[in-house]
Amino acid sequence: MAGGRSAPGYSQRVTSTPTAARRATVDQVCADAVDVARLGLLAATSDDLIGEHVGVEADDERVVTHRFACLDPAYRGWHWAVTVTRASRSRTVTVDETVLLPGPDALLPPAWLPWSERLRPGDLGVGDLLPTREDDARLEPGWNAADLSEPVDDADPDEQAWAQTVVALGLTRPRVLSPIGLADALDRWYSGDAGPEAPLAQAAPASCASCAFLLPIGGHVGQAFGVCANVYSPSDGRVVSLEHGCGAHSEAAVVPSAHVPPPPVVDNLGYDVVTVGRDAGEPVVVDEDPGLG
């Protein structure tokens, strides 16, 4: 294939050179049958896609392969390979196989990867199932000795305590997280968006360790991680490093109280001179210095 396209009508041959074939000499009768090879190729493709003859090589005794340049613009760097052969003591050459093969400069698709290696975080959607391999290094066998298939005697406090302990420790699970899986998860959380080097944490006023919205995690994991419970934080409901932080820290700032304006100042000593009229258009001048006595 080239550029995601396949060569219709042609099979891609997997070439292997046995020891006997490497020692085989080119059969001259088959090597001279260039026209026979081109005619056989015309039965599979059009003449305008066949270029000049570029070489011949021996595959086996009385079996050679002629190579022609491919002029198809979609298969630049590829070549036509026509294998011809003849019977012993016969000079009649016949076409055995025609294929389109890539050269060293051909455009090829990426190497095929199994689905388990192509998956990336976020690929799993609603309704998708992701089977876990039996040899997944992130998991290890659980302790299968805890069998709770039989009902627990409610009257026996020892059995009740045993059952609660088994369930609390997760001993009924067939597989549990291995040290490799735990270390991988902690490293991923610490070095990702929930760690101290995230841009959000670098601009935070304080770390999550002093935030009231941090929910602690039990065990030794809780020595470095917790769960954010702030609805306004972008990390709400996620595991965060104690060294992480955001602008929604509980102690980031104190909300200022409402500003109360001061009471107005009334001047009881001075006065203003105004001009009023008794009748329309007739001004009355008020004494500018009526006195205060």
In CATH terms, what is the fold-level topology of the domain at 19-102? Nuclear Transport Factor 2, Chain: A
Rg computed from alpha carbons, rounded to a whole number of angstroms: 44 Å
Give the averaged pLDDT, no decimals: 81
Query: Any idea of the CATH class of the domain at 19-102?
Result: Alpha Beta
The percent of residues in helical segments reads: 10-25%
Return the string of H and E elements: HHHEEEEHEHEHHEEEEE
Characterize the main sheet: 4 strands, antiparallel
Structural class: alpha+beta
**Can you count the helices?**
7
What's the architecture of the domain at 19-102, going by CATH? Answer: Roll
Kindly report the oligomeric state of this protein: single chain
Terminal Cα separation, in Å?
Answer: 113 Å
Low-confidence stretches: 1-22
What's the number of extended β-strand segments?
11
Strand content: 15-25%
Q: Widest sheet: strand order?
A: 1-2-3-4
